[in-house]
TrEMBL record:
<protein>
    <recommendedName>
        <fullName>Palmitoyltransferase</fullName>
        <ecNumber>2.3.1.225</ecNumber>
    </recommendedName>
</protein>
<dbReference type="Pfam" id="PF01529">
    <property type="entry name" value="DHHC"/>
</dbReference>
<dbReference type="InterPro" id="IPR001594">
    <property type="entry name" value="Palmitoyltrfase_DHHC"/>
</dbReference>
<feature type="domain" description="Palmitoyltransferase DHHC">
    <location>
        <begin position="137"/>
        <end position="271"/>
    </location>
</feature>
<dbReference type="GO" id="GO:0000139">
    <property type="term" value="C:Golgi membrane"/>
</dbReference>
<feature type="transmembrane region" description="Helical">
    <location>
        <begin position="67"/>
        <end position="84"/>
    </location>
</feature>
<keyword id="KW-1133">Transmembrane helix</keyword>
<keyword id="KW-0449">Lipoprotein</keyword>
<keyword id="KW-0333">Golgi apparatus</keyword>
<keyword id="KW-0564">Palmitate</keyword>
<feature type="transmembrane region" description="Helical">
    <location>
        <begin position="183"/>
        <end position="208"/>
    </location>
</feature>
<dbReference type="GO" id="GO:0019706">
    <property type="term" value="F:protein-cysteine S-palmitoyltransferase activity"/>
</dbReference>
<comment type="similarity">
    <text>Belongs to the DHHC palmitoyltransferase family. ERF2/ZDHHC9 subfamily.</text>
</comment>
<dbReference type="GO" id="GO:0005789">
    <property type="term" value="C:endoplasmic reticulum membrane"/>
</dbReference>
<dbReference type="GO" id="GO:0006612">
    <property type="term" value="P:protein targeting to membrane"/>
</dbReference>
<keyword id="KW-0472">Membrane</keyword>
<keyword id="KW-0812">Transmembrane</keyword>
Length: 394
């Protein structure tokens, strides 16, 4: 006999989330799908710092101070921690509307705009919102089926609406938004300091070597064995990497320092939201650099609204074949013979747990005297069996 067994399969919410993000460690890590440049960032930071700690730090610790490698290690660990925190976290993705919510919003928009004649373009889907006596427009996202909150935008790479969207950074492999912007800023700031630090002490290392054997001999080949010659080549390579990195990283840090002081995002600066023809003032700025920096870098961090590791339970029905041989001790289900010669089950509940049809449940017979007054039957109301055939009339 075959038995249908229903078992519950545990599915996490991150497995069903729309968009183009990737998740690791059971939804704890959230990144964009395009992670190639992020691996290049890790390689440049780890490679340059490894060469610096392996060669120059040992020489500088002996010649100058042992605090040089200690401070470099602190900068390196802080830069790596903020990089991973920026790359592996939710930037502030806004969940898409459920089908019922989307249908309600569509109905609300149609009721507001009215019927649009055929051939005419429908009006833009915009809601006005007031912030600090300034009118801010909330735009409708046709992908997420929601009116985006203020300062939110839809990332075309991750295919998600991100709250306080700044930009999508391929170097960190993630969007930069409300929940990870402060870590992104601390990352580029610490990386700038680390790059300047390594570049400076590489120059110091070359200068100390030049005082002993001359600058030209230091660049060409250090007298001695092969390892000392390769050390000089690696030092020159570090200097070149740090020199070209300085222009981009330090410049990027300066630009975002300017944005933090104004409480403005990269997306707003590119679009000219507060510096356009209308000359609308930034409603999010406090007019004070210190207050703006405190809000952006030290304000409360909102929790993620995705609930990536929440549980969605799905039932799966599987058919299992079970052979039940009847032994000598096996008992047949007991049945009772009714007055009409039909078999009646001894229990009102069937084997599969469902209740039987009402016609199969035996009803105890009550005499006319035992019935309530309003339920007593007269002789004319009793059914009369047919005498022509042995079957009951309908």
């Amino acid at each position: 006999m075959s038995v249908m067994v229903a078992r519950k399969k545990v599915v996490r919410k991150w497995e069903k989330l729309p968009g183009r993000n990737t998740f690791c460690c059971d939804g704890r890590i959230m990144m964009a799908r395009q992670k190639g440049i992020f691996y290049l960032t890790l390689f440049l930071i780890l490679g340059t710092c490894a060469l610096f700690f392996a060669f120059e730090c040992r020489y500088l610790a002996v010649q100058l101070s042992p605090a040089i490698p200690v401070f470099a290690a602190v900068l390196f660990l802080f830069a790596m921690a903020t990089l991973l925190r920026t790359s592996f976290s939710d930037p502030g993705v806004i969940p898409r509307a459920l089908p019922d919510e989307a249908a309600f919003i569509e109905m609300e928009i149609e009721a507001t705009n009215g019927t649009v004649p055929q051939g005419q373009r429908p009006p833009p889907r915009i809601k006005n919102f007031q912030i600090n006596n300034q009118i801010v427009k909330l735009k409708y996202c046709y992908t997420c089926k929601i009116f985006r909150p203020p300062r939110a935008s839809h990332c075309s790479i991750c295919d998600n609406c991100v709250e306080r969207f700044d930009h999508h950074c391929p170097w960190v492999g993630n969007c930069v938004g409300k929940r990870n912007y402060r870590y992104f800023y601390l990352f580029i700031l610490s990386l700038s300091l680390l790059t300047i630090y390594i570049f400076t002490f590489n120059i110091v290392y070359v200068a100390l070597k030049s005082l002993k054997i001359g600058f030209l001999n230091t660049l060409k080949e250090t007298p001695g064995t092969y390892p000392s010659s390769s050390l000089t080549v690696l030092t020159v390579l570090e200097v070149l990497i740090c020199f070209f990195t300085l222009w981009s990283v330090v410049g990027l840090t300066g630009f975002h320092t300017f944005l933090v002081a104004l409480n403005q995002t990269t997306n707003e600066d590119i679009k000219g939201s507060w510096t356009g023809k209308n000359r609308v003032q930034n409603p999010y700025s406090h007019g004070n650099i210190v207050k703006n920096c405190c809000e952006v870098l030290c304000g409360p961090l909102p929790p993620s609204v995705l609930d990536r590791r929440g549980i969605l339970q799905q039932e799966e029905s599987t058919a299992q074949e079970e052979s039940c041989p009847r032994g000598p001790g096996a008992q047949e289900p007991t049945t009772a013979q009714g007055p009409g010669g039909q078999a009646e089950e001894s229990s009102a509940q069937q084997k599969d747990g469902s209740l039987p049809h009402l016609s199969a449940v035996p009803v105890p017979s009550l005499s006319n005297a035992e019935m309530p007054e309003e339920k007593q039957l007269t002789f004319g109301e009793l059914p009369v069996p047919s005498q022509d055939t042995g079957q009951a009339e309908h």
